[in-house]
Amino acid sequence: MYAALHLPRFRLQAALRWRHIAGSAVVVDGRDAKAIVLEANAAAQAKRIFSGQTVAQAMARDLGVLVLPRSDAEEAALAGLLLETAQTLSADVEQTAPAVCIADLRRRPAPTCWQSFGDGLRQQLSAEQIEVAVGLATTPDLALLAARGGGVAIVYDPSAFAATLPVEAMELSREMALTLKDWGIATVGELLRLPRTDLLERLGPEAEAALRRVSGRHRRPLKLVHLPPGYHEAFDFEHEIESTEPILFLLRRFLEHLCGRLRSAHRVAQRLNLSLPLDDGTTYERSFSIPAPTTDVTVLYRILDTHLEGLRLEQRPVGVRLTVEPVAASGCQLGLFETALRDLNGFGETLARLKALLGENAVGVPQRVDSHAPDAYTLAETFPETSESTEPPVRGLPLRRFRPPVVARVDCSELGPSHVDSRVVQGEVTHCAGPYRRNGNWWDQDRWSLEEWDVALTTGGLYRLGRSGTEWRLEGAYEHLR
Amino acid sequence: MSTYVELHARSAFSFLRAASQPEQLAERAAALDLPAMALLDRDGVYGSARLHAAARERGLRGIVGAELTLDDGSVLPVIAATRPGYRNLCRLLTKAKLRGTKAHAPIQWAELAASSEGLIALTGDEEGVLADPLRDASRLKRVVEAFGHQNVFVEIQRHFRREEEWRNQALVDLARAHDLPLVATNGVTCHEKAARGVLDVFTCARHHTTLDRAGRLLAANSERALKSGAEMERLFADLPEAITNTQRIAERVEFSLENLGYEFPRYAVPEGESMDSWLRQMTYRGARERYGVLTERVTRQLERELTLIAQLGFSGYFLIVWDLVNFCREADILMQGRGSAANSAVCYSLGITACDPIACNLLFERFLSEGRTSWPDIDLDLPSGERRERVIQEVYRRYGPHGAAMTANVITFRGKSCMREIGKALNLSPDVLDRFSSLYASGDFPHTLELRDQLAQAGLPQSHPRAGVAVALYERMYGLPRHLGQHSGGMVICQGELSSIVPLENASMPGRVVCQWDKDDCEDLGIIKVDLLGLGMMAAMQDTIELCRQRGRPVDLAQIPKDDPATYDLLCAADTIGTFQVESRAQMATLPRMKPRCFYDVCVEVAIIRPGPIQGRMVHPYLNRREGLEPVTYFDERLRPVLERTLGVPLFQEQLLKIAMVMADFSGAEAEELRRALSFHRSQERMNKVVVKLRAGMLAKGVSEDVTEQILQAVQSFAVYGFPESHAISFALIAYASCWLKVHRAPEFYVGLLNNQPMGFYSANTLLQDARARGVRVRPVSVLTSEHDCTLEPEGSIRLGLRMVRGMDAKTGHRIVAAREQRTFEDLDDFRLRVAPSKDVLRTLARSGALNGLVEHRRDGLWQVTKPALQLEELPLPSENAEAAPFAPMDAFERMNADFTGTGVTTGPHPMRLIRDQLSAITTARDLGAVPHGRRVTIAGMVICRQRPGTANGFVFISLEDETGVSNAVVPPALFERRRLVITQESFLRIEGVVQNARDSLIVKSTRIEGLSYAELAQGPRSHDFR
After folding, report:
1. Residue ranges of domains in chain B
2. How far apart are CA B579 and CA B560, in angstroms?
3. Does B275 touch chain A if contact means CB atoms closer than 8 Å?
4. Nearest CA-CA partner of A117 in A132, A142, A134
5. Domain B911-1025 is classified in which CATH homologous superfamily?
6. Which of A430, B105, B433, B516 is the most exposed place for a label (fewest CB within 10 A)?
């Protein structure tokens, strides 16, 4: 016997997994210019919202419908969970499609009741708010077709089963589905009643393969898969988010869930990979090595929490993904220099906390940002690969910047600054050049505007002054020969 | 006044390289007290005409020039100092534009020397020929060689940027080393600092990036806005000669667009004749044909017109248009003159127009007057499509590729395009932008929903940190030029080379050349434009006439009686679907009240449903007076002769001119000024000036304040949408003819309409419903009988043509017809073998029933066509070819859906008839007329039209079609906003409301609207929405 596990409305289930939705909801292919409804939940269908409609048409039927774009990451996470579940049934598992797994049950003892077996599986996933359909049959393809009908379906008589099976369940190519629709064929039974030679002459090898699948006589070998190296969860927000609270809330739920899955597989987490897709299309990624691998949610959560507490991003996150790299619980080997530490996880957390206290800006490799803003830089985790500079050639005297700039009191005359007073330098201005004006990010909350002056002081130095609003700062000193 | 002249400014006509309109630049320059300003748009003089007009009004001098992109990528700004210089500039640009592509058309360095006379070259900014002065010094030598030492100025700019100072120092050294003068400019890209945001958005659009990622591609600051002379003098205090040189250059510039040197082509007349004498001869020859006997009144009018035409030097123009008309006649192309030309007896006599202005008492001054400096307006209506293209190509042939061009059409940033560009730059979610486009696809709705709310509905809440910026940018960017298209029919021609008057470039459409100015610019600069406008109805009528001739019941449009009772009955019953101008929902709503019974009533009907009369609140007074519900009164008894035939209500532009002449003693020239203000929709300022003059004139004549206000209100409401009587008469001629054809030649008329789709207000399916309601039988597409076009069968039924089959190209259609003419198709295999249609076409033919006759029914056809095609040598014997169809035929719903998918029309039952027994308590369109006023009803049907006229204060009109006809509903703004998506997205609607049946106007005032969704009803045919 083979068991096929099928997640109906897979894309919608993936999108709704971490959300509690009471009303109608649809998942759309947001990557297309005109988003099209891919799947709709029961509440939406009750309001006559169906796949193939545009978002506007769906909203015409229910203005309050929740429209979620399809998410590859969420689907991958759900597909991973399905595979894990199938692996608990048998070592011989095929992931036929992201939403379908087929398990070969022939090497395990048959249960006393196949119906109860199927119901048990459904209940197990139902606890995770996942709806699964289970098909049980003597061939993998029949099991899959049975699963597509929903609920638990056991095929004892392939002919009787095929007679009422809708042709959509066969997931035919668009071309063949259209042809069958043209012919008015709705069920596999109707298809089987067509003269076989004529049918094959018209529809070719695809029809032959389809008929073979429903015959119940064709037993193909499964394309076996193994568990992926990590346990993965993902969530995409409907809008960009401004604070870390929603991320932390989700991460805790992810960890609770993932740690449960790890424990049931007798494994522990040795590394956490966090990634935050950002609104400019880039992704913030960070990997956390767990000094003492564990499934303790509190410990793992604290690592993430400490990191996010000090994290400042230019762009806003639009999603969150977490992958746990597992290791067998008993096979974990401590590092050579870490064994002396009593609490490895505690030490890692301390380092992270230090970083949080000093700020992300205090650690890393500085890199110039492409901006008119003076001294705009970012910190990279690693040294960038050497590449040709696109910077314009630097002319004039080198400037030694004060980081941070020094607050100054500046008196001005009609011509510009006339006197400078700061903790670094004081004096009358003998010569000045400027103003040089720059401003930017006018579209954002981080808008800035700066007026710069180069001044020579009676004390002999050459300095750069900057004024932002009414506030003056000494930005740097020019290196020059006196 | 300052000595500084801004010599390097770009406008938004540099397309994505600057952010202000030329008018904004002129206004700001005048406010800053600059004496002159040069507009140097990138690779063109696109904005110069507008700057010229705006500058002239403000006492500013507009200087013309352009930034030239050279073949090494550098940019050379040049100023036209003399007329030859301007001509050289236009020719240089034309040569490059016609040689290159839209995106890349550089001028070659080698071409500069030969075309440099009269041009002054600047060295440009960071994109200029001296972008890096140390590296590019050799380029300076080339510029000097090309333009001459005295015509080259080294340009320096100061935008408060440190890097710029390094460059400027090098430029000063370079200028001194080469003994060249310096000139200061500000490299202006916007009129004020606040417009810089739009410039940054444009930069992102050019570089396909976002504001967040653009980095140093964006402007470093907002200093490229126009600056005052004092400010520039302060900036260049260390280089005062750079400022004085701006004045020196300005003084050297002799050329202005005022003296463009444009000449209309001369008409070649026989030896011994002048253009005046030849026009006179031709006019009288035509007049004798038109009028028969020339009465004194006719002769007097002709003499008056001919004298004025000769005096103004317009004889050649009339002869050239007459020549084009003759070409149309000889080529058998239906043509009718339109526009103010219809006011001229000369035009009527020459056969340019079809309406006798003397009999219609039309105001000649509307067409031509002594004070007129611009060319009179003659528009020619032609059948759209291939026949009009023949006329356009004839004009190119006659005047050469550089002697004629289409006028440009400036495509501007509007609702969707504006928000999409802003959204992309601000990195807003594509979903939001798609939704915004989808929700507001049919235009902007400023009446009831603020942009902020529109954005919120599209998924960008007002709390979003970038929502405010998006709205602010939208307001600034809306209306700025986006790209240049071509006008639908306006052509300009010239004596000699047009390319020396205005640069020409290739249009996207092959074989078309377009000039860099739009029709208003051309008119403003005195360049004559002939509008060769394509009208779908002209094409339909010409096809109808040809069909009538073939069927032995010929029609001469000039001879159809203007007093045909049946035609007026049709108009009174508003049975006007498919006709010209009187078929819209609003026209149909007015016709039963208007009850036209003579030709002039049709003219009024055409003119009255226009924004001008509606906004001026003229419609109801006119209709009430017509129905005797209110007395006929006049603003002033002196206006009785002017307003008598429109019952005291001014409906036409001519009447307003006449009112101005009678009540304010306006001369012909002043009336012309008023006309131009009325039709020149870009300038409110121009309108305001005329209004002041009119008020003063009326005051001087002792017109009471009350009457003055009434007249001024009428004038202002006509400002944007004024409709001339001559125009109305020309349209009414076509409208009446189309109604007459519908009454008396219905089958031929519907065929004419179907073969010229898309056109008009309604879909082909609605036209077919209408045809059937008139008893015309419609037969489906069939490969056994259909031609490529729709045709008439001998007994008078319409046979749909193969052109109706969606996805089938004309070649396949013609191949089917040709193969059938050789030999009738024996069976499906024979058809497939000889026509070899694609698999998809074959399927569509089978699905829409076009193979019936070769197969048992559609499903059988769909089964047969999936069989692999036979080769010639395997052609089976007839007995082998009989295969039983294993399917039942399609049911009525399936056939209907297949019809709409395959051909867009159905010859079967109306969708509403198919679901009628599932509906309860629905009043059909036929029964709605019997429902008393004020009674609640529910109507339902297929949406054929949604409209939200700008004059209706946010009310929306919906037309629903069922198997008995069309019912109309009006939706209040609040209900529309609540049910916007239902209304705009659903193909079938159920509307509850109250019948408004007063005064022959029947409409349901909606209170509740639902989608009518039955699984069996797929998408209906395309509706006419918000156009």
Report:
1. 6-191+226-259, 275-404+520-536, 560-608+723-744, 611-722, 759-891, 911-1025
2. 16
3. no
4. A134
5. Nucleic acid-binding proteins (2.40.50.140)
6. A430
Single-letter residue type at B917: D
Alpha-carbon separation of residue B787 from B816, B849, B850, B852, B904 (angstroms): 8, 15, 12, 16, 18
User: What is the number of structural domains in chain A?
Assistant: 3
10-49 in chain A: CB under 8 A from chain B: 30, 33-35, 48
| B215 interfaces chain A, CB cutoff of 8 Å | yes
Q: Which DSSP category does B987 fall into?
A: S
How far apart are the CA of B49 and the nearest CA of chain A, in angstroms?
Answer: 33
Architecture of the B560-608+723-744 domain: Orthogonal Bundle (1.10)
| Same domain, yes or no: A202 and A267 | no
Task: Examine the domain organization and report whether A98 and A207 are in the same domain.
Answer: yes
Q: How far apart, in Å, are the Cα atoms of B239 and each of A437, B159, B169, B228?
A: 21, 15, 11, 17
The CA distance from B180 to the nearest CA of chain A, in Å, is: 26
B469: nearest CA partner in chain A: A443
Residue B245 structure tokens: 């040189």
Q: Which residue of B has its CA nearest to A200?
A: B867
Residue A262 in any domain: the answer is yes
Contact B540, B756 (CB under 8 A): yes
A463 within 8 A of A457, measured Cβ to Cβ: yes
State whether A412 and A454 are in the same domain.
yes
Using a cut of 0.80, tell me whether the model's pTM lies above it. no
Query: Which residues of A are less than 8 Å from B984 in CB distance?
Result: 56, 60
User: Which value does ipTM take for this structure?
Assistant: 0.75
Question: Chain A closest CA to B798's CA: distance in Å?
Answer: 28
The verdict on domain B759-891 having CATH code 1.10.150 is: yes
Decide if B560-608+723-744 and B759-891 have a common fold: yes
* Residues facing residue A39 across a β-bridge: A27
CA-based nearest residue to A394, from B703, B166, B306: B166
* Chain centroid to CA B608: 21
Which one-letter amino acid corresponds to residue B185? T
pLDDT tens across the length of chain A (482 residues)? 899 999 999 999 999 988 888 899 999 987 554 788 999 999 999 888 888 888 888 888 888 888 888 888 999 999 999 998 898 888 899 999 999 999 999 888 888 889 999 999 999 889 888 999 999 999 999 999 999 888 899 998 888 888 888 888 888 898 899 999 999 898 888 888 888 888 888 888 888 888 888 888 878 889 998 777 788 999 988 888 888 888 999 999 999 989 988 888 788 898 899 999 998 888 999 888 887 788 889 889 988 888 887 777 878 898 999 999 988 765 545 555 545 555 656 655 665 666 666 665 565 667 888 899 888 887 765 555 555 556 666 678 899 999 889 999 999 998 899 999 999 899 999 999 989 999 999 999 889 999 999 999 998 889 999 999 999 999 999 987 55
- Domain containing A354: what range? 231-330+338-361
